[in-house]
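Chapter review: from sequence to fold.
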Amino acid sequence: MPIRAELDAIDWKILRELQNDGRMTNVELSRRVGISAPPCLRRVKRLEDAGVIRGYRALLNGPALGMDVVAFCLVGLKHQSDSDLKAFAEKTRAWPIVRDAWMVSGESDFMLHCVASDLAAFQTFVIEELTSSPNVDTVRTALTIRQVKDEGLVAIAS
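The token string follows.
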């Protein structure tokens, strides 16, 4: 699959470094990628403007904040018209427990990544919100045991 943005080796180094540590200063980033600070800043700005870099955020430790349950829900809808799919996608945005949502192919229509304070809160969400939502036909849940890998979204070769 072709890359949609024109990136050179320096751009890839910038992306790898920022994905590993998005808080570093431009001076530190420029040192790590081997160029001076002004062109480094211009490159980062260009990557942001092109939508290659979507944003920056802090990665929080859920258990340290009392969010001990991570689960995935596979949701099948009764009807899959474009308007039905869009309506359910919009509904996921209103549920704070749903941290990520994907429309998927196969036996299910959506996969939801959920984080809750405890099992009771997750069960309440599934029973009172998710399964009772209009057009929801099936819900399959998978409680996680422990996270074994936590990397950035895009694998970038060294």
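Two observations follow directly from the output. Residues 37-49 form the longest helix (13 residues). The mean pLDDT is 94.
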